[in-house]
Please model this.
Amino acid sequence: MQSNLFLHPLATPAWESEPAAALRLATRSLWTTPQEHESGAPDRRIIHQRALFTQNPARLDRLAVGWGPGYHKCASGQERDAALDVVVSRGDRYGWHEVGHLRTSVAQITEGGAHLDLGGLMTTALVAEVRRAATDYWWPGWNLATTGLTLTGELDRTWTPGRDGWLTEGAIDTRGAQPGVTAHHTATEVRFSSGHLAVGFRLKSPSWSHLSIDQDGAGRVHDNLLQLPRSMDIVRSGVYPSGVYPVMRDQNADYLAQGPRFAGTDGVLNMGFLHRDYEGTTTVTGSTVRYDVTIPDAGQRYVLEFTVHADRIELVAERHSAETRRAWQSSAWHVALDNRVTPPCALGEPTFRGETGLLTGSVSWHFPRYGTLMLDGGENVLWRSDSVRPLDTNTLELKLGEEPTPFGDYLLPAGAHRAELTMRVASPTLAHLSDDTPVPVRRALERHTLTALPFRADTTTYSNNGASMHCTTSLADVSAIAVQLGDAPGLRPLAWVGDSLQRWLDGAPSYGSGTTSHGDHRLEDEYVHMAANTLLAMGRYLAASGDEGWFARNRGGIIRELADMLARDVDGDGLIESTLRRGISGEHQWSTAWSDVLSFGWKDAWANAVLCEVWREWDPVLRRHGETDLADRIAAARTALIESFLPTFLNPETGLIAGWRSLDGELHDYGFSIVVAQACATDAVPLDRAAEIMTALLAAWSKAGLDDVRNGIPLNLWRIPEHDIGGVVFGLPMGGYQQGGYSHHGARVVVDALERCGMVDEAEQVLAQLCETIGDDSSFGGLGSGRDWRMADGTPSGYEGQLVEGFSVLAAALRRYAVPAARAPFTPGARA
Model:
């Protein structure tokens, strides 16, 4: 039986002796527009390709499709999906040529799958492009393209090593460095340092060995932000079946490259990670490093001259080519970064064409806890940002004189191409603060406003962080910040809210959102809180932007989502319910709320408190657009919700708002501070009763010993019994993740509720204390650090290490201390 050539050798039991060198696999995401046969597809969407490259021609017989892993939307249920529309193309030195098109149906997949006969095709490069899927339809996911296709044939596994070229060291003289810059020369590198940055350059290869920045200029530049290749990871999870992971053989290892890259459309990899088919020289004069690099078989020559100043790096870059070339991957300069140190985010104007992640114009390259490099390069330059989550790596690459193609690769025109670029340590100003802004609040805002805006270029949506997936529920907190900010070159916080919402309306999946393979419903019917948060962000966007064209283009989807939310009130009391997640003790269902591993269900106080605000936000928006009938329905629903809220959720024994009331009528109250505050910050609770409830909450805090919230606010004050847990936190002590973990997540509403109830001093204290630990970087960390949740003693007990909701309190800080200024005319997000 033939093996699947789309299956990476490291995923097989015989991995140790598997000759993998002759085979390279890749998965690529790209923007596309509807083809003739794709009636009803969005104007723009992201699809995925699975690519195979071989050193010697392979014989390819058949491409088969069947059920496989789908887009990961929630750990409570693993999705399955299948490719229904696949375009297959072979590559050569000059580009791509379609060799087959497979169209099938769910029925055929269910009956046993479908296949495309490739007829013994001989080639060194093949790409299968998945354009439509069974579950995620127009948005087939990375998981599906990577593991849902079977390619059979015969592979010539003989392998001839490529050239092991090194640069020749010319004159190395670090005397006369720029003012404020010191140099250190070792056997393999020269490193320049100042109070603001440190950059190391390898001498025998064109690449950085070290990069670090310090926004404060205090010389804290010892942490290397780069992802440096390592041979082995111990006990690493993933496709690998053993306990020692050979990173250098990973199918994504090409992304670990530092410096120029080039791989042709014929499968030849000339330059990249561990590939050195180049020649040239390195010279150093003062704090200027000059690489002159020629890649003979690629027909490319790069001259890269870096000059390190105290606060910036200047780069004069040239690309010379005698002929026009087509490239699968190419970079004048590629940087791989370690998300375990910090998850960076490249913020700029997306192009929405070709391979995802392309940015044009000014780019803010933000490193949470370290600072920002402002990138400027002119019209001849494109930047590209990508996140390679299996390797904890984010990348940024410079493309010089390159043209993205609709296929997702690049055309490199012949001739000489030149650009002068600057990478400056700086902090863009998106809001001006009043003179009386407290020091910790000012520092949190000046240092971390960009941290609170993780708009991933490769997905064009706000995400958990610059290296994580997107959850549309996060848009509630992000939009509360974005509506108070202005724009700056390459930075459009409010427009990016619109772009993120556009994806959602166009059917793109996200965590807790979208279609599911587990039933004839959407995940919004399970995660009703997340749906409410998304609609709240949409109402804010339309109210703040005045983007009439956006409403007109999306009217059908908007009306559908609002009507679906109204329909979730299944018993007519104004409160929405989830009929799928019932909240009953002992059923161990996952959540209807943001706290996804707890058994919130049926009538969710958190979701309904948000919904009260949603209906208030949407009423004037709909009336402004002439949708009076729907506005009247929403107004009536809001009135009913307010009348039902306290009788349903107030716990007379504690004086607090409970988390949820399950289908069996039981009230589940574990001292959920954020739920209480969310309710009391809105009209769901009348003002006089809200003051009583917030007083009771502060008393419960005091009884629990919580008189200082710099460590964060516990998700629950009292232990949640195992019978009300859906997963993950079974057996954890108090303070472990969502079992009473302290965090800054969603804390904006605590300040809002205290202010609404007239508790101004208490609100100011909570705001200042939370901002103090945001400003000193102790409330979050790199991916895997777990610092986004802490135990009572500060021990990390959390999740990824950084989540966008951890900065929600900045919205309250801006409301208090941002100086009102005339907003520049709003420019909506780019259209395809």
Observations:
- The chain has a mean pLDDT of 94.
